[in-house]
Amino acid sequence: MSESPSLGSVILYARDMEKTAAFYSRYFGFETTGVVVEGLIELQSPEGGAEILIHQAAKAIKLGQVGVKLSFHVSNVEVFVSDAQKNGLRFGPVHEANGYQFANAKDPDNNPVSVSSRAFR
Fold this sequence. Notes:
The protein is an alpha/beta fold. It folds into 2 domains: 8-58, Signal recognition particle alu RNA binding heterodimer, srp9/1 (2-Layer Sandwich); 65-121, 2,3-Dihydroxybiphenyl 1,2-Dioxygenase, domain 1 (Roll), CATH 3.10.180.10. It has helices at residues 17-28, 77-86; strands at 9-14, 40-43, 51-56, 70-73, 95-97, 100-106, 112-116. Strand 6 (100-106) and strand 7 form a beta hairpin.
């Protein structure tokens, strides 16, 4: 291979595209116009990294499977989880693992999401 690819975007299928885009904007700080362009709502992190593209889910797609999990890097998991709960997002317990912490939640389409301090260990 002549070049190493980098992850540029994650496509999420959603029943309610606007609700899912608002979730990632509100709880994870992604920026979006919320406008559907070419069948997608685009979300960008002000910190850089991969973008999230929200795509309308076909009726036949079964959402909420554990085939994909979005993991967001945060330096302090407990503070993030506490702040998220104040804003209405409930995470499960904070877990300790090999020098870092993580916690899990679900988006509006029941897709798993987590916050992890692994990148900061």
